[in-house]
Amino acid sequence: MHFNNKYINQGDSQSEIKDKVNYNFNQILSFAIGHEGLIGPKGATGIPGPSGKIGTTGNTGDRASDWYRGITFPTTGNPQEFDLWVNDSSDLADIYERGISSWSYTGLSLFNSNYFGVYSGIVGPLGLTNKSAVGFKSTYTPDQTSLVISDTYFSSLEVNPNNSKLLISTLDQIDTPIFSFSKSNGNSINPPSFYWKNTGTLSDLIFKSSGKLSINTLLDLELSSYEASGGGNVQINGSSFNANTLGDINIISPGYDVKFKTSSFSSPPVSPILISSLNIGIDTFKLYTKTLTEISHYSGLYILSSNPTPGSLFNYFGGISINSDSTTSRVFDFTGMDGHSVLYGLPSGSVTSGNHKQIVFGASGGGPTGSTGAPYSYHVKRLNNISFSSVIAGFFIPYSKRNNTKITLADLVGVSAYLDVSNVSLWNSNMLVLTTPNAISDDAYIFIPSSTSPSFEPLFYSGEGNEYRVYLNSMIGARKIKGIAYTYVYEDTSGSLISRIVYINFPSTCSYVDLFWAYRGSSTNPNGRIFWKTCSGSSGILETTNQFTISANTAPTFPLSS
Fold first, then answer.
1. Domain ranges in the chain?
2. pTM
3. Which of 166, 273, 318, 344 has the most C-beta neighbours closer than 10 Å?
4. What is the dihedral of CA 453, 455, 456, 461, to 10 degrees?
5. Chain segment 499-531, per-residue pLDDT in tens
Protein backbone atom coordinates (compact mmCIF):
# COMPACT_ATOMS: atom_id res chain seq x y z
CA MET A 1 0.00 0.00 0.00
CA HIS A 2 1.44 3.35 -1.03
CA PHE A 3 1.23 6.48 1.09
CA ASN A 4 0.41 9.59 -0.96
CA ASN A 5 0.72 13.11 0.33
CA LYS A 6 0.62 16.62 -1.04
CA TYR A 7 3.50 19.03 -0.44
CA ILE A 8 2.84 22.53 0.84
CA ASN A 9 4.73 24.94 -1.37
CA GLN A 10 5.83 28.51 -0.81
CA GLY A 11 3.14 30.78 -2.23
CA ASP A 12 0.14 28.46 -1.57
CA SER A 13 -3.02 30.28 -0.47
CA GLN A 14 -4.64 29.68 2.89
CA SER A 15 -7.39 27.60 1.22
CA GLU A 16 -4.84 25.44 -0.64
CA ILE A 17 -2.84 24.85 2.55
CA LYS A 18 -6.03 23.80 4.43
CA ASP A 19 -7.05 21.35 1.66
CA LYS A 20 -3.57 19.79 1.54
CA VAL A 21 -3.41 19.40 5.34
CA ASN A 22 -6.85 17.66 5.39
CA TYR A 23 -5.86 15.41 2.50
CA ASN A 24 -2.59 14.38 4.17
CA PHE A 25 -4.41 13.72 7.47
CA ASN A 26 -6.90 11.44 5.66
CA GLN A 27 -4.00 9.58 4.07
CA ILE A 28 -2.47 8.97 7.51
CA LEU A 29 -5.78 7.63 8.87
CA SER A 30 -6.31 5.39 5.85
CA PHE A 31 -2.77 4.03 6.04
CA ALA A 32 -3.79 1.41 8.58
CA ILE A 33 -1.39 -1.15 10.01
CA GLY A 34 -2.20 -4.76 9.01
CA HIS A 35 -1.37 -8.03 10.67
CA GLU A 36 2.26 -8.80 11.32
CA GLY A 37 3.79 -10.59 8.34
CA LEU A 38 5.95 -13.68 8.27
CA ILE A 39 9.52 -13.44 9.48
CA GLY A 40 11.85 -13.04 6.54
CA PRO A 41 14.94 -15.15 5.91
CA LYS A 42 18.06 -14.41 7.95
CA GLY A 43 20.31 -11.90 6.25
CA ALA A 44 23.93 -12.41 5.43
CA THR A 45 26.50 -11.82 8.14
CA GLY A 46 27.70 -8.24 8.13
CA ILE A 47 31.30 -7.16 7.90
CA PRO A 48 33.23 -7.13 11.19
CA GLY A 49 32.83 -3.94 13.17
CA PRO A 50 35.77 -1.72 14.13
CA SER A 51 38.02 -2.63 17.01
CA GLY A 52 36.79 -1.49 20.39
CA LYS A 53 38.55 1.08 22.52
CA ILE A 54 41.60 0.05 24.48
CA GLY A 55 40.54 -0.82 27.98
CA THR A 56 41.79 0.90 31.11
CA THR A 57 45.04 -0.21 32.69
CA GLY A 58 44.47 -3.09 35.06
CA ASN A 59 45.33 -3.14 38.72
CA THR A 60 48.92 -3.64 39.78
CA GLY A 61 49.64 -7.32 40.20
CA ASP A 62 50.93 -9.03 43.28
CA ARG A 63 54.57 -8.54 44.09
CA ALA A 64 57.12 -11.26 43.51
CA SER A 65 58.14 -13.65 46.24
CA ASP A 66 60.46 -12.23 48.90
CA TRP A 67 63.31 -14.23 50.47
CA TYR A 68 63.96 -14.10 54.20
CA ARG A 69 66.79 -15.48 56.30
CA GLY A 70 67.00 -16.03 60.06
CA ILE A 71 66.82 -18.49 62.91
CA THR A 72 63.08 -17.88 63.48
CA PHE A 73 60.03 -17.37 61.31
CA PRO A 74 59.99 -13.84 59.78
CA THR A 75 57.77 -11.44 61.71
CA THR A 76 58.77 -8.20 59.99
CA GLY A 77 58.73 -7.12 56.35
CA ASN A 78 55.07 -8.07 55.79
CA PRO A 79 55.59 -11.66 54.58
CA GLN A 80 52.97 -12.86 52.10
CA GLU A 81 51.88 -16.14 50.54
CA PHE A 82 54.59 -17.82 48.43
CA ASP A 83 57.44 -15.93 50.16
CA LEU A 84 60.50 -18.06 51.00
CA TRP A 85 62.48 -18.32 54.24
CA VAL A 86 65.93 -19.86 54.74
CA ASN A 87 66.13 -21.36 58.24
CA ASP A 88 69.62 -20.53 59.54
CA SER A 89 69.06 -22.72 62.62
CA SER A 90 69.12 -25.86 60.45
CA ASP A 91 72.44 -27.36 59.41
CA LEU A 92 71.49 -27.48 55.72
CA ALA A 93 69.66 -24.13 55.52
CA ASP A 94 66.23 -25.58 55.00
CA ILE A 95 63.86 -23.59 52.77
CA TYR A 96 60.30 -22.87 53.90
CA GLU A 97 57.40 -21.47 51.89
CA ARG A 98 54.74 -19.15 53.25
CA GLY A 99 51.18 -20.41 53.01
CA ILE A 100 48.03 -18.46 53.72
CA SER A 101 48.81 -18.13 57.42
CA SER A 102 51.88 -20.28 58.22
CA TRP A 103 55.27 -21.51 56.94
CA SER A 104 55.83 -25.06 55.69
CA TYR A 105 59.02 -26.92 54.77
CA THR A 106 59.48 -27.34 51.01
CA GLY A 107 61.76 -30.38 51.29
CA LEU A 108 64.61 -28.36 49.83
CA SER A 109 67.74 -27.03 51.48
CA LEU A 110 70.45 -24.75 50.21
CA PHE A 111 73.31 -26.87 51.47
CA ASN A 112 72.18 -30.26 50.24
CA SER A 113 71.38 -29.18 46.69
CA ASN A 114 72.67 -31.30 43.83
CA TYR A 115 73.65 -28.12 42.05
CA PHE A 116 74.71 -25.57 44.70
CA GLY A 117 77.29 -25.69 47.45
CA VAL A 118 78.42 -23.39 50.24
CA TYR A 119 81.90 -21.86 49.98
CA SER A 120 83.36 -20.29 53.10
CA GLY A 121 86.19 -17.83 53.56
CA ILE A 122 84.99 -15.50 50.79
CA VAL A 123 86.94 -12.25 50.83
CA GLY A 124 84.53 -9.35 51.30
CA PRO A 125 84.78 -5.59 51.88
CA LEU A 126 87.77 -4.45 53.98
CA GLY A 127 89.35 -7.90 53.49
CA LEU A 128 86.92 -9.74 55.82
CA THR A 129 86.78 -13.52 55.31
CA ASN A 130 84.11 -14.52 57.83
CA LYS A 131 81.34 -14.81 55.22
CA SER A 132 80.25 -17.62 52.93
CA ALA A 133 78.80 -17.74 49.43
CA VAL A 134 76.49 -20.09 47.53
CA GLY A 135 77.72 -21.27 44.14
CA PHE A 136 77.63 -24.12 41.62
CA LYS A 137 79.24 -27.37 42.73
CA SER A 138 82.40 -28.30 40.89
CA THR A 139 80.84 -31.57 39.70
CA TYR A 140 78.73 -29.54 37.28
CA THR A 141 81.63 -27.72 35.59
CA PRO A 142 80.69 -24.21 36.75
CA ASP A 143 82.39 -22.58 33.77
CA GLN A 144 79.85 -24.31 31.51
CA THR A 145 76.79 -24.05 33.75
CA SER A 146 74.34 -21.13 33.91
CA LEU A 147 71.45 -20.17 36.15
CA VAL A 148 68.22 -19.53 34.27
CA ILE A 149 65.11 -18.10 35.94
CA SER A 150 62.15 -18.24 33.58
CA ASP A 151 58.40 -17.70 33.55
CA THR A 152 57.85 -20.79 31.39
CA TYR A 153 59.28 -24.23 30.66
CA PHE A 154 61.97 -24.17 28.03
CA SER A 155 63.85 -26.48 25.69
CA SER A 156 67.59 -27.10 25.87
CA LEU A 157 68.15 -25.61 22.42
CA GLU A 158 66.95 -22.08 23.23
CA VAL A 159 67.23 -21.77 27.00
CA ASN A 160 70.37 -19.62 27.00
CA PRO A 161 71.60 -18.86 23.48
CA ASN A 162 74.17 -16.23 24.62
CA ASN A 163 75.64 -18.41 27.41
CA SER A 164 74.85 -15.76 30.05
CA LYS A 165 75.97 -16.72 33.54
CA LEU A 166 72.62 -15.53 34.91
CA LEU A 167 69.59 -15.33 32.64
CA ILE A 168 66.17 -14.05 33.65
CA SER A 169 63.56 -15.02 31.06
CA THR A 170 60.03 -13.60 31.28
CA LEU A 171 56.79 -13.68 29.35
CA ASP A 172 56.13 -10.98 26.73
CA GLN A 173 54.77 -8.34 29.13
CA ILE A 174 55.59 -4.88 30.49
CA ASP A 175 53.51 -4.84 33.69
CA THR A 176 55.58 -6.83 36.19
CA PRO A 177 59.28 -6.32 36.96
CA ILE A 178 62.06 -8.43 35.50
CA PHE A 179 64.30 -7.86 38.49
CA SER A 180 63.69 -5.93 41.72
CA PHE A 181 65.62 -4.76 44.78
CA SER A 182 64.19 -4.56 48.29
CA LYS A 183 65.28 -4.10 51.90
CA SER A 184 63.62 -4.83 55.23
CA ASN A 185 62.40 -1.30 55.95
CA GLY A 186 62.26 -0.07 52.36
CA ASN A 187 59.35 0.90 50.13
CA SER A 188 57.61 -2.36 49.28
CA ILE A 189 55.13 -0.69 46.88
CA ASN A 190 57.55 0.69 44.28
CA PRO A 191 60.93 -0.97 44.87
CA PRO A 192 63.75 -0.27 42.39
CA SER A 193 63.04 -2.56 39.44
CA PHE A 194 63.88 -3.30 35.84
CA TYR A 195 60.99 -3.60 33.35
CA TRP A 196 60.62 -4.34 29.67
CA LYS A 197 59.78 -1.10 27.86
CA ASN A 198 57.92 -2.67 24.93
CA THR A 199 56.18 -5.89 24.06
CA GLY A 200 57.15 -7.77 20.92
CA THR A 201 60.64 -8.29 19.56
CA LEU A 202 62.21 -5.09 20.96
CA SER A 203 64.55 -5.48 23.94
CA ASP A 204 64.37 -1.98 25.46
CA LEU A 205 64.68 -1.77 29.25
CA ILE A 206 63.35 0.70 31.83
CA PHE A 207 64.65 1.14 35.37
CA LYS A 208 62.02 2.52 37.76
CA SER A 209 62.69 3.58 41.31
CA SER A 210 60.92 5.65 43.94
CA GLY A 211 64.36 6.81 45.08
CA LYS A 212 67.56 8.08 43.45
CA LEU A 213 70.10 6.22 41.35
CA SER A 214 73.76 7.13 41.79
CA ILE A 215 76.70 5.77 39.82
CA ASN A 216 80.13 6.38 41.36
CA THR A 217 83.38 5.39 39.76
CA LEU A 218 87.01 6.10 40.56
CA LEU A 219 87.88 6.18 36.88
CA ASP A 220 85.98 7.14 33.73
CA LEU A 221 82.23 6.73 33.30
CA GLU A 222 81.23 6.18 29.69
CA LEU A 223 77.71 6.27 28.28
CA SER A 224 77.65 5.15 24.68
CA SER A 225 75.50 3.48 22.06
CA TYR A 226 77.35 0.82 20.10
CA GLU A 227 75.11 1.70 17.16
CA ALA A 228 76.04 5.37 17.31
CA SER A 229 77.82 5.26 13.96
CA GLY A 230 74.58 4.01 12.43
CA GLY A 231 72.31 6.58 14.04
CA GLY A 232 71.85 5.36 17.63
CA ASN A 233 71.41 8.06 20.28
CA VAL A 234 72.39 8.54 23.90
CA GLN A 235 69.55 10.43 25.61
CA ILE A 236 69.30 11.91 29.08
CA ASN A 237 65.82 13.12 30.02
CA GLY A 238 64.69 14.70 33.25
CA SER A 239 63.39 17.84 34.93
CA SER A 240 67.01 18.93 35.28
CA PHE A 241 70.48 17.68 34.37
CA ASN A 242 73.54 18.53 36.43
CA ALA A 243 77.11 17.70 35.45
CA ASN A 244 79.77 18.60 38.01
CA THR A 245 83.44 17.84 37.63
CA LEU A 246 86.78 19.03 38.93
CA GLY A 247 88.29 18.45 35.51
CA ASP A 248 87.22 18.94 31.90
CA ILE A 249 83.89 18.06 30.33
CA ASN A 250 84.44 17.01 26.73
CA ILE A 251 81.62 16.56 24.23
CA ILE A 252 82.98 15.21 20.96
CA SER A 253 80.90 14.39 17.91
CA PRO A 254 82.95 13.30 14.90
CA GLY A 255 80.83 14.17 11.90
CA TYR A 256 77.56 14.77 13.77
CA ASP A 257 75.80 17.74 15.36
CA VAL A 258 76.05 18.50 19.06
CA LYS A 259 72.73 19.94 20.27
CA PHE A 260 71.55 21.41 23.54
CA LYS A 261 67.83 22.05 23.65
CA THR A 262 64.91 22.26 26.03
CA SER A 263 61.32 21.32 25.31
CA SER A 264 59.52 23.96 27.37
CA PHE A 265 59.65 27.59 28.44
CA SER A 266 58.35 29.26 31.57
CA SER A 267 57.43 32.78 32.63
CA PRO A 268 59.30 34.24 34.36
CA PRO A 269 62.09 32.36 32.61
CA VAL A 270 64.31 29.93 34.43
CA SER A 271 67.68 28.71 33.22
CA PRO A 272 67.10 25.61 31.07
CA ILE A 273 70.83 25.23 30.43
CA LEU A 274 73.58 26.41 32.77
CA ILE A 275 77.23 26.13 31.77
CA SER A 276 79.95 27.66 33.93
CA SER A 277 83.69 27.29 33.51
CA LEU A 278 86.86 29.36 33.77
CA ASN A 279 86.47 30.66 30.21
CA ILE A 280 82.80 30.57 29.13
CA GLY A 281 79.36 30.53 30.70
CA ILE A 282 75.70 30.31 29.70
CA ASP A 283 72.79 31.35 31.90
CA THR A 284 69.18 32.41 31.38
CA PHE A 285 69.94 35.73 29.75
CA LYS A 286 73.36 35.64 28.16
CA LEU A 287 76.36 33.80 26.80
CA TYR A 288 79.47 35.35 28.31
CA THR A 289 83.19 34.78 27.98
CA LYS A 290 86.10 35.69 30.23
CA THR A 291 88.66 35.55 27.44
CA LEU A 292 88.67 36.33 23.71
CA THR A 293 86.16 34.02 22.04
CA GLU A 294 85.89 32.87 18.48
CA ILE A 295 83.07 31.04 16.70
CA SER A 296 84.51 29.68 13.47
CA HIS A 297 83.39 28.10 10.26
CA TYR A 298 84.56 24.51 9.81
CA SER A 299 87.07 25.72 7.21
CA GLY A 300 88.65 28.01 9.82
CA LEU A 301 87.07 31.26 8.59
CA TYR A 302 85.47 33.53 11.17
CA ILE A 303 81.69 33.48 11.51
CA LEU A 304 81.66 35.53 14.72
CA SER A 305 84.64 36.66 16.74
CA SER A 306 85.14 39.06 19.63
CA ASN A 307 88.62 39.80 18.25
CA PRO A 308 88.34 39.80 14.42
CA THR A 309 91.22 40.46 12.08
CA PRO A 310 90.99 44.13 10.97
CA GLY A 311 90.15 44.62 7.31
CA SER A 312 89.45 40.96 6.66
CA LEU A 313 86.51 39.92 4.49
CA PHE A 314 85.38 36.33 4.23
CA ASN A 315 82.77 34.76 1.98
CA TYR A 316 81.00 31.64 3.16
CA PHE A 317 77.62 29.99 2.93
CA GLY A 318 77.50 29.07 6.62
CA GLY A 319 76.46 31.60 9.22
CA ILE A 320 74.83 32.21 12.55
CA SER A 321 71.31 30.94 13.17
CA ILE A 322 69.52 32.39 16.20
CA ASN A 323 66.15 30.99 17.24
CA SER A 324 64.29 32.70 20.07
CA ASP A 325 60.90 32.85 21.72
CA SER A 326 58.55 35.64 20.54
CA THR A 327 58.62 37.25 24.00
CA THR A 328 62.40 37.72 23.92
CA SER A 329 63.23 41.42 24.08
CA ARG A 330 66.15 41.17 21.60
CA VAL A 331 67.54 38.38 19.44
CA PHE A 332 71.02 39.95 19.34
CA ASP A 333 72.56 43.22 20.52
CA PHE A 334 75.87 44.89 19.67
CA THR A 335 76.77 47.77 21.97
CA GLY A 336 79.34 50.56 21.82
CA MET A 337 81.94 51.38 24.44
CA ASP A 338 79.35 53.56 26.22
CA GLY A 339 77.03 50.58 26.62
CA HIS A 340 74.36 51.80 24.20
CA SER A 341 73.21 49.66 21.28
CA VAL A 342 74.59 50.27 17.80
CA LEU A 343 72.94 47.27 16.16
CA TYR A 344 70.25 44.99 17.50
CA GLY A 345 67.51 42.70 16.24
CA LEU A 346 64.02 42.10 17.56
CA PRO A 347 62.12 38.80 17.19
CA SER A 348 58.78 38.09 15.59
CA GLY A 349 55.96 38.76 18.00
CA SER A 350 53.77 41.61 19.21
CA VAL A 351 54.49 45.18 18.24
CA THR A 352 56.29 45.78 21.53
CA SER A 353 58.69 42.91 20.84
CA GLY A 354 59.12 43.65 17.13
CA ASN A 355 56.27 42.15 15.11
CA HIS A 356 58.18 42.36 11.86
CA LYS A 357 61.63 41.22 12.96
CA GLN A 358 63.10 44.71 13.11
CA ILE A 359 66.83 45.26 12.75
CA VAL A 360 67.82 48.63 14.17
CA PHE A 361 71.08 50.45 13.26
CA GLY A 362 72.64 53.47 14.91
CA ALA A 363 70.95 53.48 18.30
CA SER A 364 74.03 54.49 20.30
CA GLY A 365 74.05 57.47 22.60
CA GLY A 366 70.74 57.10 24.40
CA GLY A 367 68.43 59.03 22.07
CA PRO A 368 66.01 57.43 19.60
CA THR A 369 68.66 57.37 16.90
CA GLY A 370 71.68 58.12 19.06
CA SER A 371 74.67 60.27 18.42
CA THR A 372 75.37 58.55 15.11
CA GLY A 373 72.10 59.83 13.66
CA ALA A 374 71.78 56.66 11.60
CA PRO A 375 68.32 55.65 10.31
CA TYR A 376 66.28 52.64 11.28
CA SER A 377 66.20 49.62 8.98
CA TYR A 378 63.26 47.24 9.07
CA HIS A 379 63.42 43.76 7.64
CA VAL A 380 60.10 42.75 6.08
CA LYS A 381 58.97 39.33 7.23
CA ARG A 382 57.00 38.44 4.08
CA LEU A 383 54.36 39.65 1.64
CA ASN A 384 50.77 38.84 2.48
CA ASN A 385 49.01 38.03 -0.78
CA ILE A 386 45.20 38.35 -0.40
CA SER A 387 43.06 37.17 -3.30
CA PHE A 388 39.56 38.44 -4.13
CA SER A 389 37.27 36.66 -6.58
CA SER A 390 35.08 39.79 -6.88
CA VAL A 391 34.63 43.29 -5.51
CA ILE A 392 31.83 44.62 -3.30
CA ALA A 393 29.53 47.61 -3.84
CA GLY A 394 28.15 49.72 -1.00
CA PHE A 395 27.17 53.14 0.36
CA PHE A 396 29.67 55.24 2.32
CA ILE A 397 29.68 58.65 4.00
CA PRO A 398 32.08 61.27 2.62
CA TYR A 399 34.85 62.08 5.10
CA SER A 400 33.83 65.75 5.11
CA LYS A 401 30.44 64.80 6.65
CA ARG A 402 31.83 62.48 9.33
CA ASN A 403 30.85 64.83 12.19
CA ASN A 404 27.38 65.79 10.96
CA THR A 405 24.81 65.52 13.74
CA LYS A 406 22.55 63.46 11.49
CA ILE A 407 23.28 61.46 8.36
CA THR A 408 20.50 61.30 5.78
CA LEU A 409 20.11 59.13 2.69
CA ALA A 410 21.16 62.11 0.64
CA ASP A 411 24.52 62.07 2.42
CA LEU A 412 25.32 58.50 1.35
CA VAL A 413 27.41 57.96 -1.78
CA GLY A 414 27.31 54.73 -3.75
CA VAL A 415 30.64 53.00 -4.21
CA SER A 416 30.72 50.52 -7.07
CA ALA A 417 33.84 48.59 -6.07
CA TYR A 418 35.75 48.14 -2.82
CA LEU A 419 38.01 45.44 -1.34
CA ASP A 420 37.42 44.60 2.32
CA VAL A 421 40.68 44.15 4.30
CA SER A 422 39.28 45.51 7.57
CA ASN A 423 40.09 42.31 9.46
CA VAL A 424 43.21 43.18 11.47
CA SER A 425 44.50 39.59 11.24
CA LEU A 426 45.33 40.25 7.56
CA TRP A 427 47.88 42.92 8.56
CA ASN A 428 50.60 40.66 9.97
CA SER A 429 53.05 41.81 7.28
CA ASN A 430 54.33 45.22 6.24
CA MET A 431 53.30 44.64 2.64
CA LEU A 432 49.87 43.52 1.42
CA VAL A 433 49.15 42.55 -2.18
CA LEU A 434 45.44 42.59 -3.05
CA THR A 435 45.00 40.38 -6.11
CA THR A 436 41.83 40.37 -8.24
CA PRO A 437 42.12 37.53 -10.78
CA ASN A 438 38.84 38.47 -12.48
CA ALA A 439 38.01 41.69 -14.29
CA ILE A 440 36.57 44.41 -12.02
CA SER A 441 34.28 47.13 -13.26
CA ASP A 442 36.06 50.15 -11.82
CA ASP A 443 39.03 51.37 -9.84
CA ALA A 444 38.56 50.12 -6.28
CA TYR A 445 38.52 51.53 -2.77
CA ILE A 446 40.16 49.57 0.02
CA PHE A 447 38.28 49.18 3.30
CA ILE A 448 40.96 49.27 6.03
CA PRO A 449 40.77 48.53 9.81
CA SER A 450 40.58 51.23 12.46
CA SER A 451 40.18 51.43 16.23
CA THR A 452 39.96 53.99 19.03
CA SER A 453 41.68 51.63 21.46
CA PRO A 454 45.28 52.37 22.46
CA SER A 455 46.11 48.74 21.65
CA PHE A 456 45.26 47.48 18.19
CA GLU A 457 47.96 44.98 17.27
CA PRO A 458 49.69 44.61 14.93
CA LEU A 459 48.80 48.09 13.64
CA PHE A 460 49.79 49.92 16.80
CA TYR A 461 50.36 49.46 20.52
CA SER A 462 50.42 52.43 22.89
CA GLY A 463 53.12 54.74 21.52
CA GLU A 464 54.45 52.33 18.88
CA GLY A 465 53.19 51.53 15.41
CA ASN A 466 54.00 49.92 12.08
CA GLU A 467 54.03 51.29 8.54
CA TYR A 468 52.34 49.37 5.73
CA ARG A 469 52.25 49.44 1.95
CA VAL A 470 49.20 48.09 0.11
CA TYR A 471 49.34 47.16 -3.60
CA LEU A 472 46.42 46.49 -5.94
CA ASN A 473 47.28 43.69 -8.36
CA SER A 474 44.52 43.74 -10.96
CA MET A 475 45.19 40.69 -13.12
CA ILE A 476 42.76 41.74 -15.88
CA GLY A 477 42.72 45.43 -16.69
CA ALA A 478 44.88 48.18 -15.23
CA ARG A 479 42.65 48.98 -12.24
CA LYS A 480 44.11 51.08 -9.42
CA ILE A 481 43.31 52.19 -5.89
CA LYS A 482 40.75 54.99 -5.94
CA GLY A 483 40.64 55.81 -2.24
CA ILE A 484 40.24 54.36 1.22
CA ALA A 485 37.30 53.71 3.55
CA TYR A 486 37.25 52.89 7.26
CA THR A 487 35.00 52.93 10.34
CA TYR A 488 34.87 56.34 12.02
CA VAL A 489 33.59 56.61 15.62
CA TYR A 490 31.42 59.72 16.11
CA GLU A 491 30.44 60.97 19.57
CA ASP A 492 27.19 62.98 19.60
CA THR A 493 26.22 65.68 22.06
CA SER A 494 24.74 63.12 24.48
CA GLY A 495 27.99 61.19 24.67
CA SER A 496 26.78 58.22 22.59
CA LEU A 497 29.30 56.65 20.21
CA ILE A 498 28.17 55.98 16.64
CA SER A 499 30.18 54.00 14.07
CA ARG A 500 30.14 55.42 10.53
CA ILE A 501 31.87 54.08 7.42
CA VAL A 502 33.54 57.08 5.79
CA TYR A 503 35.68 57.34 2.67
CA ILE A 504 38.00 59.64 0.76
CA ASN A 505 39.06 59.85 -2.87
CA PHE A 506 42.74 60.17 -3.66
CA PRO A 507 43.68 63.15 -5.86
CA SER A 508 44.56 60.55 -8.49
CA THR A 509 44.33 56.78 -8.61
CA CYS A 510 47.46 54.86 -7.77
CA SER A 511 48.85 51.31 -7.78
CA TYR A 512 49.80 51.40 -4.10
CA VAL A 513 49.35 53.44 -0.93
CA ASP A 514 51.41 53.70 2.27
CA LEU A 515 49.50 53.70 5.59
CA PHE A 516 50.41 54.41 9.19
CA TRP A 517 48.13 54.34 12.25
CA ALA A 518 48.70 56.48 15.34
CA TYR A 519 46.55 55.76 18.36
CA ARG A 520 46.55 59.48 19.20
CA GLY A 521 47.44 62.54 17.16
CA SER A 522 49.68 64.30 19.67
CA SER A 523 50.06 65.08 23.38
CA THR A 524 47.17 67.57 23.07
CA ASN A 525 45.05 65.56 20.59
CA PRO A 526 44.08 62.18 21.99
CA ASN A 527 42.06 61.24 18.87
CA GLY A 528 43.63 58.57 16.68
CA ARG A 529 44.87 59.24 13.16
CA ILE A 530 45.57 57.43 9.91
CA PHE A 531 48.36 58.79 7.71
CA TRP A 532 48.30 57.96 3.99
CA LYS A 533 50.57 58.59 1.03
CA THR A 534 50.00 57.39 -2.54
CA CYS A 535 52.54 56.31 -5.12
CA SER A 536 52.17 59.70 -6.84
CA GLY A 537 53.26 61.54 -3.69
CA SER A 538 49.86 62.78 -2.50
CA SER A 539 49.32 62.43 1.23
CA GLY A 540 46.93 63.28 4.03
CA ILE A 541 45.78 62.65 7.58
CA LEU A 542 42.45 61.13 8.64
CA GLU A 543 40.93 61.17 12.12
CA THR A 544 39.48 57.93 13.50
CA THR A 545 37.16 59.60 16.07
CA ASN A 546 36.05 62.88 17.62
CA GLN A 547 35.60 61.20 20.99
CA PHE A 548 38.25 63.21 22.87
CA THR A 549 38.51 66.96 23.25
CA ILE A 550 41.49 68.67 21.63
CA SER A 551 43.03 71.16 24.04
CA ALA A 552 46.34 72.39 25.39
CA ASN A 553 46.06 69.94 28.24
CA THR A 554 47.98 66.67 28.28
CA ALA A 555 46.03 63.85 26.68
CA PRO A 556 44.45 61.32 29.06
CA THR A 557 46.33 58.16 29.89
CA PHE A 558 44.87 55.13 28.13
CA PRO A 559 44.74 51.84 30.07
CA LEU A 560 46.50 49.06 28.18
CA SER A 561 44.18 46.24 27.23
CA SER A 562 45.05 42.77 28.49
1. 67-208, 332-378, 383-543
2. 0.38
3. 344
4. 130
5. 999 999 999 999 999 999 887 767 777 888 899
